[in-house]
Amino acid sequence: MKKEPILCVKNLGISFSQYTKGLRKKELKVITDLDIDLYEGEILAIVGSSGSGKSLLAHAMLGILPHNSKLEGKIIYKGKEITQKEKEDLRGKEIAFIPQSVNFLDPLMKVSSQVQISIKDKNNKKSIQRSIFKKYRLDENVDNLYPFEISGGMSRKVLLSTALTSSSKIIIADEPTPGLDEKSLMEVLKDFRDLADSGCAVLIITHDIEAALKIADRVSVFYAGTTLEVASVKDFKNGGKNLRHPYTKALYNALPQNGFKSIKGTQPLPSELPKGCLFYDRCDIPKSECKNKRPEMTYIRDGMVRCLNAT
Questions:
Q1: pLDDT band at residue 244 under the 50/70/90 scheme
Q2: Distance between CA atoms of 243 and 292, rounded to whole angstroms?
Q3: 199 by DSSP, 3-state: which?
Q4: What is the pLDDT of residues 72-121, one digit of tens each?
Q5: What percentage of the chain carries pLDDT values higher than 70?
């Protein structure tokens, strides 16, 4: 029997209120019909180009969207739809967040103290913090420094340490690896894998498809504010022949080791979304019905895909 996800996002929609010339209020929808499932013991990687909705999804799950936003759909944790207040209560406790920007570090607090806050073992906070700092080659003198006194790469390691020393059931990591040297990158990826193997649910948002394929179990592909495909990592093997959506195949073929093949066009802006398939203008196998019909998410070959041509 298939286990239930610890967290579900169903039919997520996010729009922002904007004022145009003449102070006319306009709703700009940037995410439409977005779905994901997170399972304990698994790493789900979310990939896609800038503006596809990856970070907004994380902010919606954590309840940190700006005040001019409107949220539609459901966010379900342990089988129960959660409110804004419940998101705030879970944040930093059962759900840990590794933000994209190192500016999330408290500028008025020593970095060691910021990591120790997330450690529940009151008797060993210092030793646990020092142990992970040592692992990431952060010397003891770093413990007494403030964020402005350390480099961007070191700040990134501090942010990672904060989440990795927590006892959270879910870890959401938004672009966690930029600025890391190759050795640190591999260590961090292994740490995420170890967390998942110990029962944690890990969501990694990244542009680095190669890194995602090294540790993830499944990959969710975002495009223009929606999910186009959810595939197992094994579907990316054998030249990506088992992938279902043309955009996912294009991402895979754009990797340097796969020939770095580009495709025509660009991702549409939220204000210029087509009526039908969001990928229609860039697809090399479009049908006439794709122009006016928005595909539903369909289960095909043990994966999910939003494409009328998928088989």
A1: very high
A2: 24
A3: coil
A4: 999 999 999 999 999 999 998 899 999 888 888 999 999 999 999 888 88
A5: 99
The DSSP H or E segment spanning 36 is strand 24-38
Residue ranges per structural domain of the chain: 7-94+168-305, 95-167
> 278: which 2 tokens?
């969001």
E strand residue ranges, the chain:
7-20, 24-38, 43-47, 69-77, 80-81, 95-98, 170-174, 201-205, 218-223, 226-232, 298-300, 303-305
The token duo for 101 is 């920007």
Copy the structure tokens of residue 250. 């294009």
What DSSP state is assigned to residue 239? G
**Cβ-based neighbour number of residue 104 at 10 Å:** 15
Instruction: Taking residues 21-38, report their average pLDDT.
Output: 85
Paired tokens of 303? 């994966």
pTM: 0.90
- CATH fold of 7-94+168-305 reads Rossmann fold (3.40.50)
Say if residue 213 is exposed, middle or buried (CB neighbours under 10 Å; 0-12, 13-18, 19+).
Answer: middle
- Other Cβ atoms less than 10 A from the Cβ of 206: the count is 22
Residue whose C-alpha is closest to residue 218's, from 38, 71, 27:
38
